[in-house]
Amino acid sequence: FNDTATTEIYTLSLHDALPILTESIKKLLQTEKSNQIFHSEQFTKWKLKKLLLNFAPLSKNYMPSFFLLPDFQIYEILNWLSKVLSNPDLDPIDKGKILAIHGFCLLFEGNYIQARESFQKSLEVFLSTGIDQDSLELADCYYRLGVAYYYLEDQKASLDNGHKALDIYLKSLEGEEYSHRIVDAYHLITWAEDDMENYGKALEWCEKVIALRRKQYGENHSLTAQALSIKGTLLIRFNYLNAGFIDINKINDSFQSFRFGKVKQYEEALTILEKSYSILNRNLGVHPWTATCLIYFGTYYYETKQFDKSLDSKMQGYQMRLKIYPE
Asked: Are 209 and 190 in contact (CB under 8 A)?
């Protein structure tokens, strides 16, 4: 700028915009990650129905008629669950399971504090029954609490609960290495480490998911591609963080090797994302995972200063999201 006043105004504007932009980016990243848990309202309703119908005592004694309709609303389930929970004769095991579903509904609705409270009550109810400390029900409680704490941005608590769940899963599911429970715990720990900017640790946990997916489904399955796309974006963030770790006293000696390593990591990230997108687009087409992969491309292009491509990729991703979630 030609004059000091204009420069100061421009700098102050950036200063004011930065907190808003930071918060927006955090929300967008959380939205991207939420696709690991919720694909759509339709999927969530199907999941709720499946959870409830699997509880034989509930399907006989408590199932409401509206639940059989395809267009039921989440708030209807919450109201109904509250009535069921008010029954003083409710079996403790059933109560623990219903509290978990209650928390799941609240999580979907965005009521993270209340969801955590329901999950905590569910854990306490199960513990009050004298349940085996290595039971899957208890591990599931810790996992759900970890998810709730993740959305509440308490990543230390999320990690603690995620590791508690994983420890029990690995003990109780010995010989069942492909269990969705184990993979879900790996995902939770990956995202929590990512949010804490422990990108190296996040990559290690992500690699565990990829290894399991490859063994179970092969290289060209959508689940393998989805895990690989997560690795791609973690590599980009890990690379960006490490950009500041240069010894200024050795910059002339180390710059070329640092630059080479940085470029190689970005190349690896791009190769992974291209492969992931090819598989997801072929297998799934318009889908949340395909959209998220396009958004990850946008991050790659932004970090490599290809801003036009970054904008195009992110716009494609969000336009695909709008097709899936028109509301």
From this structure: yes
Q: Interhelix angle for 199-217 vs 180-195, to 10°?
A: 160
Q: Which two tokens stand for residue 157?
A: 């608590």
Q: Which of 238, 233, 235, 178 is nearest to 208 (CA)?
A: 178
Q: What is the DSSP letter of 3?
A: S
Interatomic CA distance for residues 29 and 268, integer angstroms:
22
Rg value, the chain, Cα: 23
Contact present, 304 and 263 (Cβ < 8 Å): no
Tabulate helix, strand, coil % of the chain (nearest 5). 80, 0, 20
Q: What is the pLDDT of residue 181?
A: 87
Closest-CA residue to 190 (of 36, 325, 28, 14):
36
Those residues whose C-beta lies under 8 Å from the C-beta of residue 274, and which sit 6 or more positions away, are none
> CB count, 10 Å around CB of 279?
22
Q: What is the pLDDT of residues 174-193, one digit of tens each?
A: 877 777 889 889 999 999 99
241 and 200 Cβ atoms separated by less than 8 Å: no
Q: Residues in the chain with pLDDT < 70?
A: 1-72, 240-264, 326-327
How confident is the model at residue 75, as a pLDDT?
74
Instruction: Kindly report the length of the chain.
Output: 327
Q: Distance from first CA to last CA of the chain, Å, rounded?
A: 43
Neighbours of 265 (CB within 10 A): 16
Instruction: Return d(Cα 314, Cα 320) in angstroms, integer.
Output: 10
